[in-house]
Amino acid sequence: MTxxxxxxxxxxxxxxxxxxxxxxxxxxxxxxxxxxxxxxxxTSRLAPDMFALTxxxxxxxxxxxxxxxxxAGREVPSYEDNEASFADIQAxxxxxLDLLATFSAADFDGSDDKVIELKLGGRERSMPGxxxxxxxxxxxxxxxxxxxxxxxxxxxxxxxxxxxxxxR
Length: 168
What we know:
The chain is mainly alpha-helical.
């Protein structure tokens, strides 16, 4: 049995972003219940040299919109990265989910061998679509998704593995 590039990307990004939305809603509710300024969570980071929660969400959505767009031969939409509240980052997730809903499996025909060109670490890189998806886009997406979850857990938001995995 084979898995298509579409199935390995769009539904995965969509489901994980829905789980992230649930996690963020729980965090916002937790901040209200504990009388914590939501900015504490939004600007929190795991280490001084790591990005804060808001930036983690921005980068996760960047990979979720960028990978399918590149693989389907579309222009990657540009977002302003100006989110400053839970409502703002939820809106960004919704905008990304709406974009993902515009893709079909046919958009990804031949994308496993399609040459993807992008800048990584300040260098221009070229690689086949399958390599890009499995070794660049998905690991980066999961890194930033997990780091967002970890920032909130570190701040005492009662989240569990089931929430991370998308249980509602």
